[in-house]
């Protein structure tokens, strides 16, 4: 069957077509407008979604080489995310499903970041149940015990800032443009991870705290810049490498705790920060070091995309789990 996935939870408008586990098209329109504000402006995001959604869906259908009349269902992100952004995708998807007379499927964005692992990718195998998912993104940091496709339990999470937010806020302090996470990663690859030391906050064994890290980067940079005004530009690689090393080893510490507590050694990562080269390498190393089986998504299925919405749509379609016509978007949707 052919299923169209639509994602509009934050600042990316995305559409994808899936056919029996294989992605036929995966289109994302990024919104450049937010860069000048140093963060996502919700009102501008929903306006851009309104402009982008029709062309993005057309392009997804064209690239998949199918007509909309061939679709079997429409899957869309119903939350969590920015309300104004979610509303655009929700109302568009409802109208399209109604117009075509096909089922509508609501998808939880955070579940989709995890279930993206079930997209068929050459040379990769999907995780076996039960597995632990580390979801690391702009808005979330979670360790999830996944027993089946729709049986998931959050066993650890951020008590303040999300990890992607920590990357972006630290990057902002360093004068890097938004979103700074990928830039920190790029600089980190040229630097010495042991050059500077940042603290790893102590919280419950499976929980995370990142707001202190941002503050310590701020104080550190202020102190050093007072002595040498060019401190940041002269040391950007080492600062980024040290920062990334701290974050990655903190994430790995928590994963080790979760493995110890659950006895599960099958690990999958998801969310935008799983594009990070440091966490990817640390996970690969953990296969040999600790005997884990690790699953790292393809780059384009890490950050926000509609392919992950389409795969959840297909999994739900096969089980006959559909949304009612009165389904609503929910900014704080849980699972
Ligand atoms: P959520 O999924 O929680 O609703 P979101 O959808 O905004 O949040 P994603 O698109 O999944 O988040 O991820 C975006 C985040 O990933 C940003 O904070 C960005 O800086 C970060 N990110 C992307 N690539 C990298 C990288 N290579 N290294 C570090 N962070 C990265
Ligand atoms: Fe996301």
Overview of this structure, please?
Keywords: Acyltransferase, Cytoplasm, Iron, Metal-binding, Transferase, tRNA processing. The chain has 335 residues and is an alpha/beta fold. Helices cover 43% and strands 19% of the residues. It contains nine helices and ten strands. It has helices at residues 42-64, 83-100, 109-115, 163-173, 181-188, 211-227, 231-262, 277-290, 307-319; strands at 2-7, 12-19, 22-30, 73-79, 104-108, 131-136, 141-148, 151-157, 266-270, 293-295. The strands form two sheets. It has a five-stranded mixed beta sheet, sandwiched between helices. Strands 8-7-6-9-10 form a five-stranded mixed beta sheet, with helices on both faces. The model has no long low-confidence stretch (mean pLDDT 97). The chain binds adenosine-5'-triphosphate (ATP) and fe (iii) ion. Residues 9-10, 81, 109, 113, 137-140, 164, 167-168, 179, 181-182, 185, 271-273, 275-276, 303-304 line the site of adenosine-5'-triphosphate (ATP). Adenosine-5'-triphosphate is lined by residues 9-10, 81, 109, 113, 137-140, 164, 167-168, 179, 181-182, 185, 271-273, 275-276, 303-304.
Proportion of β residues? 15-25%
Q: Spatial order of the strands in the main sheet?
A: 3-2-1-4-5
> How many strands?
10
What compounds are bound to the protein?
adenosine-5'-triphosphate, fe (iii) ion
* Alpha-carbon Rg, integer: 20 Å
End-to-end C-alpha gap: 26 Å
The biggest beta sheet is recorded as: 5 strands, mixed
What multimeric state do the chains show? single chain
